Predict the structure.
Amino acid sequence: MSEFNPKSGYNPDHVARSIRIEIDAPASVVWDILVDLPKYGEWNPFCVKCISTLEMGAAVVMTIAMPWDPSEQATMTEYLCAFEPEKLLSWKMDWSEPWPYAGRRDQVIERLSPTKCAYYSTDAFLGDSGIHIQRFGAGWISTGFTATARALKERAEQIYAAQHIKSAVNA
């Protein structure tokens, strides 16, 4: 049995989660939306701006709109740690002396059929300080993630429907 790492250890009780939502669009459509960072402001009510090269280890600079007042925003920088097309997009913040709040955000796409998938997002608050983020922020972070999941569903289904109409017209 491994010992809990006080700086980066995972505790399943310290995780914010969105709802798991089924999307009537292929995983490829959902993936394309998630990695089209310049367009986040067009559809994402929580992460209204996101800048990154999406190279492994690259900075992911996000502007977050607070769920209680979208005009109140915060900028956060995390680092890309997983990039599995049509499956997983993740970034993390490591523990440091000036900011001892390590965490990892995972956005998961599950392929259900060629034309349907599911999406959910989690943010694991790591190490001994994870309890503080859990108590302070898990509720509003989960609210923001759920708003994102619902908006992603709406956008993906609109894009997929438009692609179907265009294909039918061109047939």
Notes: The beta strands are 15-17, 21-23, 47-51, 59-66, 69-84, 88-93, 103-113, 116-125. The mean pLDDT is 93.
